[in-house]
Amino acid sequence: MALSGFDIDAPRWDQRTFMGRLWHFFSITDFRTVLLSDTRLDEAKMLVDSCRAGAVPPGTTKEQLYYAKKLYDSAFHPDTGDRMNLIGRMSFQVPGGMAITGFMLQFYRTVPAVVFWQWVNQSFNALVNYTNRNAASPITPKQIGVAYVTATSTALATAVGLNLYTKKAPPLVARWVPFAAVAAANCVNIPMMRQQEILNGIAVTDENGDKLGHSRKAAIKGITQVVVSRITMAAPGMIILPIIMERLERYRFMQRITFLHGPLQVMMVGVFLVFMVPAACSLFPQRCSMAVSKLEPELRDSIVSQYGESIRYVYFNKGL
Questions:
Q1: Which has fewest Cβ within 10 Å: 22, 168, 287, 290?
Q2: Dihedral sign, CA of 288, 293, 296, 302?
Q3: For the whole prediction, is pTM greater than 0.90?
Q4: What does the angle CA 37 – CA 43 – CA 46 come to, to the nearest 5 degrees?
């Protein structure tokens, strides 16, 4: 079958539905893609670019094109087309997140351990947030540093404060402290890392991708959705797993293998994240929409004066 007219950017699954987005993110957050070399990823990008140019190499199959697009979406930024750093990719969330989260849940009893693992986690989160930002809104090194320090301080203050406060609380309550710290830090880290979007607005387009202006309200909506997604991503593993470990540690055989508790929690967090990373990313469409009537008055009036009532919604990339 000829593939010269194949639209490689057409969604393989319906992005208007949660299930369609879920299959999409299961594909691009596949942690196996982090094992591929930059050369292999660049080859996939070349094939995607060739297809976009209408020059599909002879003998290329549709499945090869779909796989190339999967690798492209997993490793290249949707705004710039640049290859993203390995640790910041959403496909690295499972191996990276499972290790850090597992050890945060294991080493929650002492203040030095809490401080160290919260610092590691926020460093990881800062890199992920920067990598998956809306690249149309540049951020300076100073702003990155302020965002990183603020989010890390918030996480440490929350974790250490709650750790001391729950010394006399039931053990299970103390096990939930890392999640409280992670949730609090996400509410700071993501908006701070993407502050330029809030201050100057995010680029919004019409349905065809034609730029209409910049909107601060659109930025706030997109960033809020990302915060909710990130907290949802962490919640099941960090809330349910402590309950499981609390029950397991009552058994004598678990008390004899305490050295395996950390690795065991890392593996169980991985099981949660394999499902929760794509599920959390799927909560909201990546190409977010907003009614023109809800935009800032000046932007709304500008759109209405140029296009009348023909444009009812604007669209933008909310990031991940």
A1: 168
A2: positive
A3: no
A4: 145
